[in-house]
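User: Hey, quick favor. My workstation is busy. Could you predict this chain's structure for me?
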Amino acid sequence: MSYFTDPFQYDFFSRALIVSVLIGALAGAIGPFVLVRRMAYIGQGMSQSILGGVALGVVWGIDLYFGAAVAAGLSAALIYFVRNRGVPVDTAIGIVASTLFAIGVAVVSSSRDRRLNSANLLFGNVLGVDTEDIVLVALVTVIAAIVLFRNYKTLLAVTHNSAVAAAHGVRARLMEVVFSALLAMVVVTALRVLGVLLVAATLLIPAATATMTFKTFRNITIASICLGTSFAIIGLFLSFHRNIASGPAIVLVGATVFAMNMLTSTTSQRNRT
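Assistant: No problem, here it is.
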């Protein structure tokens, strides 16, 4: 029992646990939409792009989250601009994300500011969260929950087929913007926990694991939220006891469960045949 009780002797662990649970639930709720819409590359590109905003924000004395939000918005605008010039969307994402990521790496590598810890920026350090982080993540969680609850059916219709949804009077383009904004909010708020390199994995792994067991989108979403939260909690304890970065710990827990589930499903299918 000491494995689970000892960490709570430290105040920072309680704060980290709250933030991890909220981020896990957020990623789990958004993940199924990202998976169905095949937006994994966009999520990965957006998460990498924010490194430049974070690094420049620290150097210029701007709030970390504000810098990340500006970079996320800038990356989305640049991707849209490049795509409209006839460049394929995956190529546009790769170019924009790589450029902004390179800017961030250049700033981090050339700066002596101790706040620009490359390991924490790339892989996360949830044990360093403070009360302001909790308030921000909680606020984003509430906003995301309200938006998803009020627009669930509309978002689902647009997710499956935006053209058909638009033909039935759904404001598909508005829903696209709303979902992109939600995705950007999740990516930015997950920065402290996961770092810029592992956000996409945390969006996809719970959802992908859930799809192996459940068939309806509603059940997949519920299972994804539960899995995302569970991965975050288990990964946090692993991070604390093994002294490893929180982001990799959470992703490794999720990847292990995904692999076990996949192997079990494959074995079951072979036995049936």
